[in-house]
Specification:
The structure is a homodimer.
Chain A: H1 4-11, H2 15-23, H3 30-43, H4 49-56, E1 61-66, H5 74-90, E2 94-99, H6 103-112, E3 118-121, H7 131-136, E4 141-144, E5 155-158, H8 160-173, E6 178-182, H9 186-190, H10 194-209, E7 213-217, H11 223-236, E8 242-245, H12 251-260, E9 270-275, H13 277-282, E10 288-291, H14 294-309, E11 317-320, E12 324-325
Helix pairs in contact in A: 1-2, 1-3, 5-14, 8-10, 11-12
Chain A binds a DNA duplex (30 and 30 nucleotides) through α2 and α4.
Chain lengths: ~325, ~325
DNA sequence: GTCCTCCGTCGAAGCGCTTCGACGCCTGGC
DNA sequence: GCCAGGCGTCGAAGCGCTTCGACGGAGGAC
C-alpha cells in the first residue's frame, strides 16, 4: 500500500504538505501542488479511509435508512436511494445502507461508532419512535416526511396535504361534485405513516371547502384490491365522477377495473393521482397527476445534511410544493 | 466521547485487555470479562469505527453495487439488497451502497481507500468491463450472475439455464407442443445481460430436446408491450399452448391480454414464469413458476464473502438449482 | 535599513484502536 | 520440590492520516 509518506518522499516535501495540497486547508504554491499531484498519479496513491476518519473525525459517509414495510412502493424508495447516493458522491461522500428493521439500535450504532457523519431517515411516522433518538444524537440528520412534532429536527418532503388539495381543486374546477380518494393499504394508515395521513387531510379539507361530497377508501396494493374498490365505489357512490389515487401499484389496475365496469376514463370518470411522473405517463390512459419528486427530495436531503455538516443552520421544515401535470385522464364533468 | 482507555480505567484493567475481551482473540478470565462488560455498559462505550479500521485493517463494511438500468425489475433488486444488508449484519458488517453509474472508478475507489473489505456486484453482463478490475483488486468480491469468462472470480446466481429448461420440460410433460418465451425488454439482450441470455439458452435447448416448436419474444416491460406480444403470438403462432414468461412487470398484464383476446389460462394456454414467488402467487391466476430466490442469493453471496475474508477457499461458481411450484396457470393440453 | 507580516512549508503530536512480545503466576508431572 | 508450560494480563508500538504551532524568507511600510 502506498501511503502519504511515500508520496511526500517522491515529491520531495513533507507529509503535511501533501495533506494540505489535497485538502486545500492551507495555501500551497502552485509548483509544489503540481509536484504532489504528479507523485500521487505516478504512485497511484489513495488515502486510507479509516486513517482519515480517525484523524479528522469525519468519515465522509452518510447513513440512509430505507423502509421495508408492506404498502411502500419499492420503485419510489429505490429512486430516492439512488438520488441520495448520486448526490452524496457529488459532495465526496458515500452512503451506508441500513434497513428499517435495524431500528433505533442501528441508528445509534452507526452514529456512535462514528461510522457515519450524518443520517437520512425515510418513512417517518406521525409518532415515530426514532424521534427522541435523532434529537439526542450528536450527528445531524434529515427526515423524509413530517412527524407530528418535528421540533428540533430537519424534515423534507413533498407537501402531501397540498398535493391532496391540488387534486381535489383540479377536479372541482372541472365541475366534479362527488369525489373519492383511493389510498394506500389499510396498514399504512394504521401505522400512521405521515404522508398518507396528510393526503387524506388535504383531500378532505379541499373537498369540504369546495362543497364536494367526498369519501376515502384504503385499498390493497393488488389488482384484486383495485377491482374490489372499484366495485364498491360504483355500488355505494353512483354519482361519483372524480377519483384521486394515492397508491402506485393499483393506478393502472384501478383504471382497468373502472373500464371493465363500463366507466370510461375520462368520459365518465376523471382520475388524478399522486405518483411519480413516469408512472403517470406509462399508464394506458396517461394520468393527470401531482408528481412524487423522489429524486429531488433525495438530492435536497443530502444538500441539507451537507449544510448542517458545514455548520450552517437550515430550515427545520422543507415542504416541496406540488406540481401538477394535466394528462388524458381528467375532463370537465359535462364533456 | 468515551474510549477504550476510559473503559480500561473504569474496569481496572489495561486497554489491551478490553480489546481482547471484546474480540475474544486471547483468553480472558470470566471475572475480568464481566468487569469489562459492566464498564462498557455503564459508560456506554462504542469503539470508533475509523480507529478500528486503521488498527486492524478491516473496516467491516461490504460494498454493494446495484444496477439502475432499464429493464431491471426494481423490487427484485431491492429484496436482494435488503437480504445482503440483513445477512451482513449477522456477521457484524455494514453495507455501502454504490450505483452502477459510478462504474469501475467507484469500485476501485472504495477498495483502494480501504473503505470496504469486500464487494458484491450485481447485474453482471457476459462481457462485463469490470471483470479485469475485480480480478486485480486486492479485496475479495462476489458477482451475482455469470459472465462468459468467470476464471478467478466467484459467481453465484439462480441457474437460469436450468430454470428455462424446467419451464419447458414442465410444459412438455403436460403435452404442449408449441411454446413461446416472452422475455425481457430488447435492451437487456443487447447489453448481453447474463441471466437473460441463459434463460433463452435453456428454453431453446430444452424445447429442441423435447421436439417442441419454440420461439423467443423480447417484450417491453409495460402493459402495452404485453398486449402487443400477445396479439403477435396469436397471429403468428395459432397453435401455441404454452408460454414461459421471464419479465416480472408484464406477467399479470400479459395474462390479462391473453384473456381479453379470448384465451383462457390455463384452459387454452398454460403459462409458467421465472419470477419471485410472491409475484407468482399474487397474480389473479396464480402462476406456476420457477422461484427467483433473491433473498437466498443475497444471503449466500454474503456468506461466500465472509468465507473469503476468513481466508477459506470457496467454489468459483454457485448455481442455485431451480425450484418450481405448480400453481393454477398450467394444465394438460387436452384438459 | 529595519521591522513586521504573511506565505509556504515542516515536524511532531495525536486521533482510538489492535496486536505483538513479554511476563508473572499457577498448575501438573515426575 | 522443581521445572515446564499455559493462562491471563500488561505495555508499547504502531496503523496512516490531519492539524497545530513554529519557522524561514520574501515583500511592504516607514
Amino acid at each position: 500500500m502506498v501511503k502519504i509518506t511515500d508520496v511526500a518522499r517522491h515529491a520531495g516535501v513533507s507529509p503535511s504538505t501533501v495533506s494540505y495540497a489535497l485538502s486545500g486547508k492551507r495555501p500551497i504554491s502552485e509548483e509544489t501542488r503540481q509536484r504532489v499531484e504528479a507523485a500521487i498519479r505516478e504512485l497511484g496513491y489513495r488515502p486510507h479511509a479509516g486513517a482519515r476518519a480517525l484523524a479528522s473525525s469525519r468519515s465522509n459517509v452518510l447513513a440512509l435508512v430505507v423502509p421495508l414495510r408492506a404498502g411502500i412502493h419499492v420503485p419510489v424508495v429505490m429512486q430516492f436511494a439512488v438520488s441520495v447516493v448520486t448526490t452524496a458522491r457529488r459532495y465526496d461522500h458515500d452512503v451506508l445502507l441500513l434497513t428499517q428493521e435495524e431500528g433505533e439500535d442501528g441508528l445509534r450504532r452507526v452514529a456512535d461508532t462514528a461510522l457515519v457523519d450524518a443520517l437520512i431517515v425515510m418513512d417517518v411516522q406521525l409518532h415515530d419512535p426514532r424521534l427522541p433518538l435523532l434529537r439526542s444524537l450528536e450527528r445531524p440528520s434529515v427526515m423524509i416526511g413530517f412527524p407530528s412534532d418535528a421540533d428540533g429536527l430537519t424534515c423534507i418532503d413533498l407537501d402531501f396535504k397540498a398535493a391532496g388539495e391540488a387534486c381535489v381543486e383540479h377536479l372541482a374546477r372541472l365541475g366534479h361534485r362527488v369525489v373519492a380518494l383511493v389510498g394506500s393499504p389499510p396498514e399504512v394508515y394504521v401505522r400512521q405513516t405521515a404522508f398518507a395521513q396528510r393526503v387524506v387531510q388535504g383531500f378532505t379539507a379541499a373537498a369540504d371547502r369546495s362543497g364536494l361530497s367526498s369519501s376515502v377508501h384504503p385499498c390493497e396494493a393488488t389488482p384484486a384490491g383495485a377491482r374490489l374498490v372499484a366495485e364498491q365505489l360504483l355500488r355505494e357512490q353512483p354519482a361519483l365522477t372524480g377519483v384521486v389515487v394515492h397508491n402506485e401499484p393499483i393506478l393502472e389496475p384501478l383504471i382497468d377495473a373502472f373500464e371493465q365496469l363500463g366507466l370510461r376514463v375520462p368520459g365518465d370518470l376523471s382520475v388524478t393521482a399522486i405518483c411519480p411522473d413516469e408512472l403517470a405517463e406509462s399508464v394506458r390512459v396517461p394520468v393527470t397527476s401531482v408528481a412524487l419528486p423522489s429524486a429531488e427530495v433525495g438530492e435536497r436531503a443530502v444538500q441539507l445534511l451537507m449544510k448542517k455538516l458545514g455548520g450552517s443552520a437550515v430550515p427545520e421544515a422543507t415542504l416541496l410544493p406540488p406540481r401538477m401535470t394535466e394528462r388524458a385522464s381528467t375532463a370537465p364533468r359535462d364533456a
